Amino acid sequence: MALFKKRTVGKPGEWYYCLVHQKVEEGPECPAKDRFGPYGSREEAQHAMETAQERNLEWDTDPKWHDKQPESGD
């Protein structure tokens, strides 16, 4: 028997989007490594993937974060 049991972290009233099950869940159902959140409402959690895509696009096109490509010495 293990001395320490791994628990999921979260509490009721917090909403998450589970990446494994591709569903919205309230509180600690799946491990943190498999979910986005917490979100303030069920509706926010339902749009988690869209929010992630929008943020990725913003970061990918942010000129402050673009590393210069190494120049070819050929």
From TrEMBL:
Residues 29-74 are annotated as: Disordered. This is SPOR domain-containing protein.
